[in-house]
Structures are given as C-alpha cells and as structure tokens.
Amino acid sequence: MNKNLSKHLAPGHSACAGCAFPSIVRTILGEATTPVVISNATGCLEVTSTIYPYTAWNVPYIHSAFENAAATISGVERAYLAMKKKGKIKKKIKFVVFGGDGGTYDIGLQSLSGALERGHDFLYVCYDNGGYMNTGNQRSSATPYGAGTETTPLGKESFGKVETRKSLMEIVAAHRISYAAQANVSNLADLKTKAKKALSVSGPSFLLVFSPCTNNWKFPTSQYVAISKLASETNFWPLYEIENGKYKLNFEPKTLKPVAEFLKTQGRFKHLFSEKNKLVLGQIQKKVNSEFAKIASLCGLL
Amino acid sequence: MTNNKKNKLALTGGYAVAYALRQIEPDVMPIYPITPQTPIIETYAKFVADGEVMTEMIEVESEHSAMSAAIGASAAGARTATATSSQGLAYMHEMLYIASGMRLPILMVVAARALSAPLSIHGDHSDVMGSRDAGWVQIFCENPQEVYDKTIIGMKLAERVGLPVMVIMDGFNTSHSVENLEILDAKLVKKFIGEYLPEHSLLDIENPVTYGPVALQESYFEFKIDQEEAMAKVAEEYLKISREYEKISGRKYGFFEEYRLEDAEKVLVLIGSVAGTAKDAVDELRKKGEKVGLIKIELFRQFPFAKIANALKNAKEIIVMDRAQSIGSHPPLYSEIMVGLRDRSDMKISSIIYGLGGRDVFKKQFENILEGKFDNKYLI
Predict the structure, then answer these.
(1) What kind of fold does domain B256-379 have according to CATH?
(2) Pick from A47, A51, A60: CB nearest B205
(3) Most exposed residue of A15, A167, A254, B260, measured as fewest CB within 10 angstroms of its CB?
C-alpha cells in the first residue's frame, strides 16, 4: 500500500470491503501538516482498528466511550496547552476526532456542542452512514426519511423511517465556528481541500462526510464510490462549506438526476419502488428539493 | 524537612480541598458545578483568575464530559483532578470504569450527597457507595483537616499505584463546616507530590500509543485481573505515603482510626463526619465505666479486611453504622464487615442505617445505641 496513505491509519484494520471510512480517515489525515492525536467515538471505525493486541493507528489514539469523543479531546487539547505553557512541549499538534452519526448526531451531540462552544483547537469529523451500523443497522437521527432499518422495519403499517434527517450542519453552524463543511467520499479532491482548510483553522472545525455502508444499505462492495457520487449528483448530499459564516456551494451536478437514481441502488430503499409507496418516493424528492433550495439560498444562489 | 511554618486557617471542607489543590497545582481540571461540591471549583477558579496557578480549567457542559475530559487529559500525561457530588457522580458512572480500566491516576474529590428521587441536596453516602465497584481507590475523611491532608495524599497515591483516587467528605457536614486547620508550606507540598512522569502519553508523538482498544474474550479477563492486582497494592502504598506525609505534617493516617478500642467490648464501626459525635458518646459512656469504643474507616477501597478483623479481635459486639443503603441486600459497610468477620460466630454484629438525605444524628442517639436501648434498623 502507498506509504503516504497508510502513514496514520495502517493497512490491516478489519473494516468491511467497500466501507468508506478508511478512505475518509486517510484522505483527511493526509492533509495534516503537523503531528496529530486522534480521539474516536465507539463505533465501526474504533472496533475495526483497535482489536487488542493490535492497532492500526500509527499516531496517538484514544477511544473512551460512545458519546464523549469531543469531551475526551477537550482534555487532551488542554493537557497539551498546559504542557506547552510549562515548556514541556514545543511542537504544534493538531487534534482530530472521528465519530459516526450515532455518536455525533444523537448520543454525542451534547459533548460535541460543549467542545465547539469552548473553542478547543480541534477538527471533528463525522462519517455519516445514516444509522447505528456497528450494532446492526438501527435508525439514528441521521437516517433518511423512508429508509428501512432494524428499528424502523417495513411492515403492513410502515414504510420505514417517518422522520426527516436532523440538520447537523445547521446545529454546528449555530456555534459560529470558523469552518464547517459537508463533503463526500466520492469526491476526494473536494474532501482534501476541505480537510486542509479545516486543519489550518485555529479553534474548532467540523467536517460531515458521506460514508456509505455496504452491509446495511445493502449494495455490492464495489459500488460505494458510485453510490456516493449519485448522492451528490441528485442533490441528496450537496457539497458545501461554511467559512466564517459564509456559505459556499462546492459542487453543482452537470445534469441533476432524480433522487430515485440514488435510492434504487440500495436495499434499504427497495420498498419505496412498490406501487404502495409511490407517495413516499414523491415526498423524498420534495424534501431533497426544499433542503437543497435552503442551502442554495444560504449560498446566495437563489 | 518538616513544616516549620505553622499556618492555621479557618476553612470549610470545600475551601480546604481548593487550598490543597492550589498547592498540588494540577495541569488540568475539568469542572462542572453541583451542590455541595461547587465551593471547591469556584474557589479554584478564583486562584486561576488571579494567576496563582497555571492549571488549565475546562468548564465542561456536564459531569459526564468532566470525567471524559479528565480521562483525555490524564491519558495525555497531565496531572488531572476534578470534583463532584451526587447526581454528578452518578452521571459519570460509565466513565469511572473507563478511567480505572485505562489505569489513569485521576484525583477526584467528592462531597458525598444523597441521590434522587426524591431530590435531596444534603449529605449521605449513597453516591460514593454506588461507585464502590468502579475500580477507584476510595478514601473517606472526617473533617476539613483530613480533607486537606488526604487530597494531597490521594494525588500522590493515584500516581504511585496507577489508579484513580476518590477522596470523600460528607456533603455539608464537612464541605460547608468551618474548622481550624493547618495548611502546610506550599513548597513542602510540591516537594512531597513531586513531578508526575507518566509511563505513556498521547502527546508523545514519537511513541504513539492506542488507549481504549477492543479486548475480545481472550484478553478482556486478563485486563480486569491486572486491575485487581493493582488495587491489591493500594493499602500498602497508602500506608507508606501516609508515613511520608506524617513526617512533614505530624499527622498520622492509617486504614482506619481506632478510638478507645484497647479493651472495648462493644464497638461502633462507621465512616465520615459522624465520627466526631460518636466519639463524644463513647467518652460519655466510658465515664460510666462502659467498655465501648469506635472504628472510623478511612480506606474503603482497597478494603482492609484483615487489619479490621485484627483490631476487633477482643470485641464482643459490633454495631455497623451505614449512611447508605443497598436496597434488597445489606448496607455496604455492614456487608464488608460481615465478610471480614465471617469466622467470628461468637460475635454479635448488627446494622443501623443513619443520616440519609442529611438527617441529623445526635450524641444521645449514639449513647442509646451503645447502651443497648436502641433496637431499629434505621436511626430516625
């Protein structure tokens, strides 16, 4: 494997074939110009990279619990400041958190909010696969409307999740941090640019990265990049950034595709293509349109 | 080197902790307010604001995050302390096991308080007894002097044994009671505590370590045995450090305090601030010629079973006083004493629960207990 790519996260982790987060982690950390220390929420990334006595991490790493990766890094970062004040450390170190959507949108939201508000010098990366995938596909507040999961199963009276995804970007933006961006594993050039910006900020920064799950979204392992690409080409997952309060759209599809093109690639949405759920499918398109319109408007495009 | 400058101050337990922490000067202190602990962090915040200490305070958004940040700071090689009470301790419960499982020498002072529901801000031991199996060293204090001394001893002990340490005082009874106590010379405390040199650190970029891995069926058990072995060394190390501390302070601490125990036939076993009142009752009955005495437990984890059994070898009757329940079983201290004295079928051992939710306890009540005039599970 390319030595530069495996500089931080080594090969030998046990993530599924077709999982997106190894590329996400490597791409982001590849943009670091200083040493990094990692804090990781409980989840797939953690369990597949640190099975004792092995570790895939070539950099200092801490996992303490599910809901507190941001609080944990707060302590690490302040320890660094304390050591720096005393002259025990001279080097510049950057602190990076990785958490899934369960550990960020749901159980870890308070800890994330606290750390953003306190202004620690860290980058928080949420790899968003829209559910609790490590425990076998339960719904989170990031699960899309209409998706079937183990806790929003399909049934005579159910078409899957009935609630709309939470807008984590807006919540993060409300903390008035210098840099936040939504990115996608299918567009590594864009992800690199965003990682570079996020890592160069002094204070908190945030990246929300689209991260398909082959097992629970139910698609062939070879398809994760293609599916991710469709997510942005249908405006299901717009790429944008918020730099010092200023919104900017980073990608516009040449030909906008209907969201059904994205949905039909995954087993979790299969039921939406039955006659019975035609209305739900229509609802999803409406939601995508209105969500995108909001973002476009914030970017000054409407 | 001894303490030449006798510095007497009238302080509450909370202030006494803050003074001890000022002299320890931790690198990092995550803080979150809760009654009756709050005076500790408020006082310390003023020390920081006045530039008297270099500590990085982190004003976190919850106790769960306070312990999480303490874990991060300690894993990064920082000398780390915090404080809490009651719901706060319950809220960090998950993280207590992670701190001890990672073998992080965090110091936490607890102003022990009742647990909700119903809500009570007053003192008892429900919170700290709920944490007794979390792998933390637990040291109890009777009064502000002990709190000051044991905060210093606790910090040194944590770093020596590689386990987190809880120093416990009674909420309000001790945390808010003013007492005249002796503060050591700051330089003496600094020297006693020494520099903290962690074995590993997240900030050691050249030697990266992974904290908090997944341990599967073939390794998890061994980690837990290691923790128990570390705890098994605590009593001995506590005694060593207490002796070192005695040299600079003149104050002697052990696993427990024995009060008029030499020929005592009837003995009270208890913990914390209530000992003062109980000692007065013992004195009263001694005047009447009754052979009564008292043991005040100081080191609760690691629990000194053999030493207590030995101290009670001549006793005929023991009354164990708990300020906490274990609903559905026997109260915590009583259970420990019963295990410690399991070979003593000749001895009468009874249990009384007192002081829940800050209920006052009076000398006369202790006299009645010692005179056999009290026959109730609850001292109400």
Answers:
(1) Rossmann fold (3.40.50)
(2) A60
(3) A254
